[in-house]
Amino acid sequence: MNGALIDQSRYQIGKTLDCRDVDMLKRLRPAAFMEIAQEAAYLAAQEMGFGYSDLIATHKAWVLARMTIQFEDLPLWRERLTLTTWHKGLAGPFHLRDFRMCDSEGRVRVKATSSWVILDTAARSLVRNSELDGLVPENRICREHVIETPAERVMMPRGTEPILAAKHTVVFSDTDFIGHTNNVRYAIWAMDCLPYEELMQRPVRSLSINFNHETKAGECVELWLFREADSCYVEGKVEDRQAFCAKITF
Question: Which of 121, 162, 224, 234 could form a disulfide with 190 if both were Cys (CB 3.0 to 4.6 A apart)?
Fold first, then answer.
């Protein structure tokens, strides 16, 4: 995955979808988009001086807190795409980052907005923005919105009775270099709560997901599902603690 700055505040990578990125109908999988976007975000931040290497020396790391993805027209296997990303500055406790994926003709195929926080990897607690003054220089911020509003807060609808769809024990392949479950794995677990045949017939139009508490190897995550006509909610819980909540719309 190659990439480069296209101006002081925006970063772009090229990506040809391979067999690992698509489903049986050769469409881009939502989790694959998240993987591509996550790597682009790390590369962009590193190139601009506030990436992993810049933070880890003081036991800090970027952590994704929320993401909303809109699939305008699902890209297909072997398509050549470009993904552009930029940091939009602060909104409350969150650092905002947008993504726009276009095809070779410049058509927007996927749009996404995300909200990030910084984790103290030693204390396993969030770092306040007041302690990070000047982390992202003003000339590295782009105020353009690919999605106008920040990633939504996702909650299981009140008064509903979700069903226990599955249980998953966090294993080696779920974890990342920060030592907890990688955010992409939660999207995979959420999608896997739905019938295979349905996912083949109904393409996902949007995915919003919140990451509320980290999970680690050996923990058992209960996956609770509630369905509506054109959407569903999946909540992951460890005992009484919500690890994540996702909304999938068809």
Answer: 234
